[in-house]
Amino acid sequence: MGEPEAFKCRAREVTEVVENPRGEEVLAHVVFLLDQLVPVGYGDNLSYTNEIGIKYEGKPKRVSVIRDFSGKPLFTKVFL
Question: Domain of life, per the record (predicted)?
């Protein structure tokens, strides 16, 4: 098991239905937007604590890469 890593990101607290890799609809509570391509996998454990101390933890429900027109990765988008 690897050491925990911290990444700078934009976190948005939401209540959103997303489709997981198995095609099931699941509820996401936080969306992370990370700069460029970040190696986040569905087996990783993520943790986020907002400004007032509410903590969200779990495995990603959906991971996608946002690319520019040439295919260069701009952001990694993770639903938790």
Answer: Bacteria
The DSSP code sequence of the chain is: -PPP----EEEEEEEEEEE-TTS-EEEEEEEEEEES-----TT--EEEE-TTS-EEEE--SEEEEEE-TTS-EEEEEEE-
Residue 10: is its pLDDT beyond 80? Answer: yes
Alpha-carbon torsion (2, 30, 10, 73), positive or negative:
positive
